[in-house]
Specification:
Elements lengths: L2 H12 L2 H23 L5 H27 L13 H9 L3 H12 L15 E2 L4 E2 L5 E3 L4 E3 L4 E3 L4 E3 L4 H30 L7 H33 L3 H5 L3 E2 L2 E2 L8 H9 L3 H4 L17 E4 L1 H13 L28 E4 L5
Antiparallel strand pairs: 1-2, 3-4, 5-6, 7-8, 9-10
Bound molecules: zinc ion (ZN) (2 copies).
The site of one zinc ion (ZN) has 5 residues, from loops.
Amino acid sequence: MAPSHAFRCCKRALNWTPVLFINLVIGWSYYAYVVELCVYTIPNDAERISYLVVFHLFFAMFIWSYWKTILSKPANPSVAFALPSADKELYEREQRAEVQQEILKRVARSLPVYTRTAGGAIRYCDFCQVIKPDRCHHCSTCEMCVLKMDHHCPWVNNCVGFSNYKFFVLFLTYAALYCVVICATVMQYFIKFWTKELHDTHAKFHILFLFFVAALFFISVMSLLGYHLWLVGKNRTTIEAFRAPVFPNGPDKNGFSLGFRRNVAEVFGDRAKDWIFPVFSSQGDGHSFVTRLVHIDPEQANSVLQQNGKIPSDGENSLGVEGDTEDSRKEKTDGDQTVVVMMDGKP
Ligand SMILES: [Zn+2]
Ligand SMILES: [Zn+2]
Protein backbone atom coordinates (compact mmCIF):
# COMPACT_ATOMS: atom_id res chain seq x y z
CA MET A 1 0.00 0.00 0.00
CA ALA A 2 1.44 3.39 -1.02
CA PRO A 3 2.26 5.67 1.97
CA SER A 4 0.02 8.48 0.69
CA HIS A 5 -2.88 6.02 0.33
CA ALA A 6 -2.28 4.70 3.86
CA PHE A 7 -2.16 8.27 5.18
CA ARG A 8 -5.48 9.10 3.51
CA CYS A 9 -7.09 5.95 4.97
CA CYS A 10 -5.83 6.88 8.48
CA LYS A 11 -7.12 10.44 8.04
CA ARG A 12 -10.54 9.14 6.94
CA ALA A 13 -10.71 6.80 9.94
CA LEU A 14 -9.64 9.61 12.33
CA ASN A 15 -12.38 11.87 10.93
CA TRP A 16 -14.94 9.49 12.46
CA THR A 17 -13.58 10.06 16.01
CA PRO A 18 -15.98 12.94 16.90
CA VAL A 19 -18.95 10.90 15.57
CA LEU A 20 -17.83 7.91 17.66
CA PHE A 21 -17.50 10.15 20.73
CA ILE A 22 -21.01 11.62 20.29
CA ASN A 23 -22.49 8.15 19.78
CA LEU A 24 -20.79 6.82 22.92
CA VAL A 25 -22.23 9.74 24.93
CA ILE A 26 -25.69 9.12 23.43
CA GLY A 27 -25.40 5.37 24.14
CA TRP A 28 -24.40 6.01 27.76
CA SER A 29 -27.18 8.62 28.23
CA TYR A 30 -29.71 6.03 26.95
CA TYR A 31 -28.44 3.42 29.41
CA ALA A 32 -28.34 5.88 32.33
CA TYR A 33 -31.88 7.13 31.66
CA VAL A 34 -33.66 3.87 30.79
CA VAL A 35 -31.89 1.45 33.14
CA GLU A 36 -30.46 3.48 36.04
CA LEU A 37 -33.25 6.07 36.29
CA CYS A 38 -36.41 4.38 35.00
CA VAL A 39 -35.75 0.75 36.02
CA TYR A 40 -33.75 1.12 39.27
CA THR A 41 -34.69 4.52 40.70
CA ILE A 42 -38.27 5.52 39.84
CA PRO A 43 -40.62 3.64 42.21
CA ASN A 44 -43.90 4.47 40.49
CA ASP A 45 -45.08 2.53 37.37
CA ALA A 46 -47.19 5.33 35.88
CA GLU A 47 -44.32 7.80 36.16
CA ARG A 48 -41.83 5.29 34.78
CA ILE A 49 -43.97 4.49 31.70
CA SER A 50 -44.80 8.13 30.91
CA TYR A 51 -41.11 9.08 31.19
CA LEU A 52 -40.08 6.19 28.93
CA VAL A 53 -42.67 7.09 26.26
CA VAL A 54 -41.67 10.78 26.11
CA PHE A 55 -37.96 9.96 26.26
CA HIS A 56 -38.13 7.44 23.40
CA LEU A 57 -40.13 9.85 21.24
CA PHE A 58 -37.44 12.55 21.43
CA PHE A 59 -34.60 10.01 21.34
CA ALA A 60 -35.93 8.56 18.06
CA MET A 61 -36.30 12.00 16.40
CA PHE A 62 -32.83 13.02 17.59
CA ILE A 63 -31.11 9.86 16.28
CA TRP A 64 -33.09 9.93 13.02
CA SER A 65 -32.13 13.54 12.18
CA TYR A 66 -28.52 13.00 13.37
CA TRP A 67 -27.94 9.99 11.11
CA LYS A 68 -29.73 11.59 8.18
CA THR A 69 -27.25 14.50 8.48
CA ILE A 70 -24.32 12.06 8.62
CA LEU A 71 -25.45 9.79 5.78
CA SER A 72 -26.73 12.38 3.26
CA LYS A 73 -24.26 12.55 0.39
CA PRO A 74 -23.28 16.17 -0.34
CA ALA A 75 -24.93 17.40 -3.57
CA ASN A 76 -22.43 18.20 -6.34
CA PRO A 77 -22.77 20.45 -9.41
CA SER A 78 -24.40 18.71 -12.37
CA VAL A 79 -22.47 18.00 -15.59
CA ALA A 80 -24.09 21.10 -17.11
CA PHE A 81 -21.54 23.15 -15.12
CA ALA A 82 -18.49 21.38 -16.57
CA LEU A 83 -16.76 22.98 -19.55
CA PRO A 84 -17.59 21.32 -22.88
CA SER A 85 -14.55 19.28 -23.98
CA ALA A 86 -13.49 21.74 -26.73
CA ASP A 87 -13.63 24.69 -24.29
CA LYS A 88 -11.87 22.65 -21.62
CA GLU A 89 -8.99 21.94 -23.98
CA LEU A 90 -8.77 25.61 -24.90
CA TYR A 91 -8.90 26.60 -21.22
CA GLU A 92 -6.13 24.18 -20.23
CA ARG A 93 -3.86 25.19 -23.14
CA GLU A 94 -4.34 28.90 -22.46
CA GLN A 95 -1.78 30.55 -20.15
CA ARG A 96 -3.28 34.04 -20.02
CA ALA A 97 -5.77 34.43 -17.14
CA GLU A 98 -7.84 37.05 -18.99
CA VAL A 99 -8.37 34.76 -22.00
CA GLN A 100 -9.28 31.85 -19.69
CA GLN A 101 -11.80 34.19 -18.07
CA GLU A 102 -13.32 34.98 -21.50
CA ILE A 103 -13.80 31.23 -22.11
CA LEU A 104 -15.50 30.85 -18.70
CA LYS A 105 -17.70 33.89 -19.31
CA ARG A 106 -18.83 32.50 -22.68
CA VAL A 107 -19.76 29.13 -21.13
CA ALA A 108 -21.34 30.72 -18.03
CA ARG A 109 -23.62 32.77 -20.29
CA SER A 110 -25.83 29.69 -20.73
CA LEU A 111 -25.85 28.89 -17.00
CA PRO A 112 -27.82 30.37 -14.09
CA VAL A 113 -24.68 31.79 -12.49
CA TYR A 114 -24.84 35.30 -11.00
CA THR A 115 -22.28 35.38 -8.20
CA ARG A 116 -18.65 36.23 -8.91
CA THR A 117 -15.33 36.15 -7.10
CA ALA A 118 -14.36 39.23 -5.07
CA GLY A 119 -12.50 40.44 -8.20
CA GLY A 120 -15.59 40.06 -10.40
CA ALA A 121 -14.45 36.86 -12.18
CA ILE A 122 -16.53 33.76 -12.94
CA ARG A 123 -16.09 31.28 -10.05
CA TYR A 124 -14.32 28.18 -11.36
CA CYS A 125 -13.03 25.17 -9.41
CA ASP A 126 -9.72 23.98 -10.87
CA PHE A 127 -9.88 20.74 -8.89
CA CYS A 128 -13.40 19.66 -9.86
CA GLN A 129 -13.13 21.51 -13.20
CA VAL A 130 -16.59 23.04 -12.97
CA ILE A 131 -18.03 26.52 -13.04
CA LYS A 132 -19.29 26.88 -9.48
CA PRO A 133 -23.06 27.35 -9.24
CA ASP A 134 -24.19 30.21 -6.96
CA ARG A 135 -23.63 29.37 -3.25
CA CYS A 136 -21.49 26.32 -4.16
CA HIS A 137 -18.02 26.00 -2.60
CA HIS A 138 -15.20 23.50 -2.72
CA CYS A 139 -14.71 21.54 0.52
CA SER A 140 -11.08 20.57 1.10
CA THR A 141 -12.06 17.80 3.55
CA CYS A 142 -14.65 16.16 1.26
CA GLU A 143 -12.49 17.02 -1.78
CA MET A 144 -15.48 18.08 -3.85
CA CYS A 145 -17.64 21.07 -4.74
CA VAL A 146 -20.75 21.11 -2.54
CA LEU A 147 -24.01 22.83 -3.53
CA LYS A 148 -25.15 25.59 -1.11
CA MET A 149 -22.29 24.65 1.17
CA ASP A 150 -22.79 25.84 4.75
CA HIS A 151 -19.75 24.36 6.51
CA HIS A 152 -17.92 21.08 7.00
CA CYS A 153 -19.06 19.68 10.36
CA PRO A 154 -16.64 17.32 12.20
CA TRP A 155 -19.43 16.19 14.57
CA VAL A 156 -21.26 14.56 11.65
CA ASN A 157 -18.10 13.97 9.55
CA ASN A 158 -19.94 15.40 6.57
CA CYS A 159 -20.45 18.61 4.66
CA VAL A 160 -23.57 20.49 5.68
CA GLY A 161 -25.11 21.90 2.52
CA PHE A 162 -28.11 21.79 0.19
CA SER A 163 -28.72 18.04 0.61
CA ASN A 164 -28.81 18.00 4.43
CA TYR A 165 -29.09 21.52 5.87
CA LYS A 166 -32.69 20.91 6.99
CA PHE A 167 -31.59 17.66 8.70
CA PHE A 168 -28.75 19.50 10.42
CA VAL A 169 -31.07 22.19 11.86
CA LEU A 170 -33.51 19.46 12.99
CA PHE A 171 -30.61 17.52 14.54
CA LEU A 172 -29.67 20.58 16.63
CA THR A 173 -33.34 21.17 17.54
CA TYR A 174 -33.95 17.57 18.67
CA ALA A 175 -30.58 17.45 20.46
CA ALA A 176 -31.67 20.50 22.48
CA LEU A 177 -35.13 18.99 23.17
CA TYR A 178 -33.55 15.63 24.14
CA CYS A 179 -31.43 17.47 26.72
CA VAL A 180 -34.49 19.42 27.98
CA VAL A 181 -36.48 16.18 28.47
CA ILE A 182 -33.58 14.61 30.38
CA CYS A 183 -32.96 17.66 32.61
CA ALA A 184 -36.66 18.21 33.36
CA THR A 185 -37.34 14.60 34.37
CA VAL A 186 -34.03 13.83 36.09
CA MET A 187 -33.96 17.02 38.18
CA GLN A 188 -36.11 15.79 41.11
CA TYR A 189 -34.00 12.61 41.47
CA PHE A 190 -30.82 14.66 41.09
CA ILE A 191 -31.95 16.80 44.05
CA LYS A 192 -32.95 13.74 46.10
CA PHE A 193 -29.55 12.11 45.60
CA TRP A 194 -27.74 15.40 46.19
CA THR A 195 -29.59 16.07 49.48
CA LYS A 196 -29.24 12.38 50.49
CA GLU A 197 -33.01 11.94 50.62
CA LEU A 198 -32.35 8.85 48.47
CA HIS A 199 -29.76 6.31 49.62
CA ASP A 200 -26.50 6.02 47.70
CA THR A 201 -26.82 3.34 45.01
CA HIS A 202 -24.91 2.63 41.79
CA ALA A 203 -27.59 4.73 40.05
CA LYS A 204 -26.50 7.87 41.90
CA PHE A 205 -23.32 8.38 39.85
CA HIS A 206 -25.17 7.95 36.52
CA ILE A 207 -28.05 10.25 37.47
CA LEU A 208 -25.85 13.07 38.79
CA PHE A 209 -23.67 12.89 35.68
CA LEU A 210 -26.65 12.59 33.34
CA PHE A 211 -28.04 15.89 34.60
CA PHE A 212 -24.69 17.70 34.32
CA VAL A 213 -23.89 16.36 30.85
CA ALA A 214 -27.40 17.11 29.49
CA ALA A 215 -27.25 20.68 30.89
CA LEU A 216 -23.80 21.23 29.38
CA PHE A 217 -24.81 19.89 25.96
CA PHE A 218 -28.00 21.96 26.05
CA ILE A 219 -26.07 25.20 26.53
CA SER A 220 -23.59 24.48 23.72
CA VAL A 221 -26.24 23.18 21.29
CA MET A 222 -28.57 26.15 21.96
CA SER A 223 -25.96 28.72 20.92
CA LEU A 224 -25.35 26.86 17.64
CA LEU A 225 -29.09 26.29 17.06
CA GLY A 226 -29.88 29.98 17.73
CA TYR A 227 -27.25 31.02 15.20
CA HIS A 228 -28.54 28.63 12.51
CA LEU A 229 -32.19 29.63 13.04
CA TRP A 230 -31.09 33.23 12.53
CA LEU A 231 -29.25 32.19 9.33
CA VAL A 232 -32.37 30.36 8.05
CA GLY A 233 -34.47 33.49 8.68
CA LYS A 234 -31.95 35.60 6.74
CA ASN A 235 -31.38 32.97 3.99
CA ARG A 236 -27.61 32.97 4.54
CA THR A 237 -25.13 30.14 4.82
CA THR A 238 -22.37 30.25 7.44
CA ILE A 239 -19.87 30.98 4.63
CA GLU A 240 -22.05 33.86 3.36
CA ALA A 241 -22.39 35.25 6.90
CA PHE A 242 -18.61 35.63 7.00
CA ARG A 243 -18.16 36.68 3.37
CA ALA A 244 -21.10 38.27 1.51
CA PRO A 245 -21.80 36.76 -1.93
CA VAL A 246 -20.60 39.01 -4.76
CA PHE A 247 -23.13 39.81 -7.50
CA PRO A 248 -22.30 41.64 -10.73
CA ASN A 249 -23.33 44.86 -8.94
CA GLY A 250 -21.17 44.11 -5.88
CA PRO A 251 -21.33 42.19 -2.58
CA ASP A 252 -24.77 41.83 -0.99
CA LYS A 253 -25.17 39.82 2.23
CA ASN A 254 -28.97 39.85 1.76
CA GLY A 255 -28.77 38.90 -1.93
CA PHE A 256 -30.67 35.62 -1.46
CA SER A 257 -33.12 36.83 1.18
CA LEU A 258 -36.77 36.78 0.05
CA GLY A 259 -38.45 37.68 3.35
CA PHE A 260 -38.70 35.54 6.49
CA ARG A 261 -41.55 33.24 5.40
CA ARG A 262 -40.03 32.41 2.01
CA ASN A 263 -36.54 32.04 3.52
CA VAL A 264 -37.84 29.42 5.96
CA ALA A 265 -39.78 27.68 3.16
CA GLU A 266 -36.61 27.46 1.05
CA VAL A 267 -35.00 25.22 3.70
CA PHE A 268 -38.02 23.47 5.26
CA GLY A 269 -40.48 23.40 2.35
CA ASP A 270 -44.02 24.76 1.94
CA ARG A 271 -45.96 22.12 3.86
CA ALA A 272 -45.91 22.44 7.65
CA LYS A 273 -46.28 18.67 8.12
CA ASP A 274 -42.81 18.17 6.52
CA TRP A 275 -41.05 20.59 8.84
CA ILE A 276 -40.63 18.39 11.91
CA PHE A 277 -39.42 15.24 10.10
CA PRO A 278 -35.91 14.73 8.66
CA VAL A 279 -37.19 14.02 5.14
CA PHE A 280 -35.98 16.15 2.26
CA SER A 281 -38.37 19.04 1.57
CA SER A 282 -36.03 21.96 0.72
CA GLN A 283 -37.06 23.95 -2.35
CA GLY A 284 -35.16 24.13 -5.63
CA ASP A 285 -32.38 22.04 -7.16
CA GLY A 286 -29.43 23.58 -5.30
CA HIS A 287 -27.94 24.94 -8.54
CA SER A 288 -29.85 28.21 -8.89
CA PHE A 289 -31.56 30.44 -6.35
CA VAL A 290 -34.07 33.25 -6.56
CA THR A 291 -32.33 36.48 -5.64
CA ARG A 292 -33.80 39.59 -4.07
CA LEU A 293 -32.04 41.92 -6.44
CA VAL A 294 -30.57 40.44 -9.60
CA HIS A 295 -28.63 42.19 -12.29
CA ILE A 296 -29.18 39.84 -15.18
CA ASP A 297 -27.84 39.79 -18.68
CA PRO A 298 -31.12 39.53 -20.69
CA GLU A 299 -29.61 36.70 -22.78
CA GLN A 300 -28.70 34.84 -19.62
CA ALA A 301 -32.16 35.36 -18.13
CA ASN A 302 -33.67 33.29 -20.95
CA SER A 303 -31.17 30.52 -20.45
CA VAL A 304 -32.00 30.38 -16.73
CA LEU A 305 -35.58 29.48 -17.56
CA GLN A 306 -34.35 26.73 -19.88
CA GLN A 307 -31.70 25.44 -17.47
CA ASN A 308 -34.04 25.29 -14.52
CA GLY A 309 -36.02 22.63 -16.36
CA LYS A 310 -32.91 20.68 -17.40
CA ILE A 311 -30.63 20.41 -14.41
CA PRO A 312 -31.09 17.19 -12.44
CA SER A 313 -32.21 17.90 -8.89
CA ASP A 314 -30.68 14.89 -7.18
CA GLY A 315 -27.13 15.52 -8.35
CA GLU A 316 -27.04 12.09 -10.02
CA ASN A 317 -24.98 13.34 -12.92
CA SER A 318 -22.40 14.83 -10.64
CA LEU A 319 -18.77 15.04 -11.54
CA GLY A 320 -15.76 13.12 -10.31
CA VAL A 321 -13.72 15.41 -8.10
CA GLU A 322 -10.38 15.80 -6.43
CA GLY A 323 -8.19 18.41 -4.81
CA ASP A 324 -8.36 21.35 -2.51
CA THR A 325 -8.90 25.03 -3.27
CA GLU A 326 -10.59 28.23 -2.33
CA ASP A 327 -12.65 30.33 -4.75
CA SER A 328 -10.69 31.33 -7.80
CA ARG A 329 -9.82 34.99 -7.67
CA LYS A 330 -8.92 36.04 -11.18
CA GLU A 331 -9.33 39.76 -11.71
CA LYS A 332 -11.75 40.74 -14.46
CA THR A 333 -14.78 42.97 -14.25
CA ASP A 334 -18.10 41.94 -15.70
CA GLY A 335 -19.37 44.31 -18.35
CA ASP A 336 -22.73 42.62 -18.95
CA GLN A 337 -25.76 44.73 -19.61
CA THR A 338 -28.00 44.50 -16.56
CA VAL A 339 -31.66 44.50 -15.68
CA VAL A 340 -33.05 44.72 -12.18
CA VAL A 341 -35.61 42.31 -10.77
CA MET A 342 -37.04 43.29 -7.40
CA MET A 343 -38.73 40.63 -5.31
CA ASP A 344 -41.54 41.61 -2.96
CA GLY A 345 -39.92 40.50 0.34
CA LYS A 346 -37.59 42.38 2.62
CA PRO A 347 -34.41 40.75 3.95
ZN1 LIG B 1 -14.34 21.76 -6.34
ZN1 LIG C 1 -16.90 18.76 3.50
